[in-house]
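Dear Dr. H.,

I hope your travels went smoothly. While you were away I took the liberty of generating a structure for the chain from your last submission, since the lab meeting agenda had it listed for discussion. I wanted you to have the full record in hand beforehand rather than looking at slides cold. The sequence, exactly as received, is reproduced here:
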Amino acid sequence: MHQDRRGTVLVAGGGIAGLALATALRHRGLGAVVLERSAGPDRTGGGLVLAPNAVKALAAIAPGLADRVRAAGHPAGGRDTPPHRSAFLDERGRVLGWVSFDGYEDRWGMPAVTILRADLHALLREAAGEAGAELVGGFAAARYRDSGSHVDLIARTGDVRRGDVLVGADGINSAVRAQLLGDGDPRYRGFTAVRGIGPAPTAHPDGFIAYGRGLVLFAAALGGGDLYWVASMTAPRGVAPRLPVAEVLAQVIERTSTWHPDLRKVPASADPAGCVVHDVHDRPAPRRWGRGRVVLAGDAAHPMVYTLGQGAGTALEDAAVLAAALAGPAARTAGGVERALRRYAAERGPRVRGIVRQSRMLGRVAHVRSPLLVQLRRGILIAATRGSDTGGQNAGLFGWTPPQED
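The corresponding predicted structure, in token form, is as follows:
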């Protein structure tokens, strides 16, 4: 292989970041091979709220992709969508404040879209296949070799795939990151999340965030009277994921037993078979994202606490920015591939580091247990939402724009 050829990009990981990147690369004339640990598509994980920056990234990744996601999900804040209003509540159901997505499309260029994670994954997988990406299942990445002119990715089975660039998009426990950075395990942030889907309370059809002591219940409308919800509660590390889902759900129901009936009914009506349990981790976003012809993207680079709802959005941004960098004319020059990867990391690093820090801080505030801190949090929420421009507060997140391509 010629040293400056960019033709085949190996993508370790077939999640949101990996499939979006493969789609973006193929639409820019580059080869993409997605090497995924699992043998089939992902059907787990509850829902996502894709903020305007995420939907703009989808539009940049491939023509029509944002429209397909809007059609499959539940858009809010669009020019032709009904008014939206979500409440901030305490555990007794008292309203502390409101947030609205109204006007998002006019202000930020796109609405917000709530969608099941499995549906987004299926759409991205379909888009990657239609674009001509090679999708390989049952390939669990173990390590890589960067020769300077090409990269070999080696599976746990010993199978080898060769490409011109390797992108580690293999999630929070990334094997590519482990070799590249060697920075240890993800950091547990003190709470476990239970995710489910169910009917929306009549009083809050657009969703809500309810705060208790050491437990937060978040819910967002999926359309048709349903919502997806996340109950996150303080818990010892590693305990809940080892228990039967029904047992963890019972803990959530017990810990919300004194809450307002509209709120406690959300987890109480859930089918354990449709719920997912996981501990919440993140990592400090690294200063170095790559070396040579190897670079990171998505959760492999910057896993974050879900409180800002930007995990998927930043992964989609990564895909748009990285594909544009590799497809640009500068990447065709001598040493251009390595410079393109460094430019991508330099652009993404400062933005993502701030989002990771802010998400972690909000996670701490949301899960306080002390009565004094609970009251302090209540006052902060009331002050932050009373008569304020919540869209303006998120300008740094939602105002992101995709890179201009040559």
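Two observations you may find useful: Confidence is low (pLDDT under 50) at residues 1-5. DSSP finds 13 helices and 19 strands in the chain.

With kind regards,
E. W.
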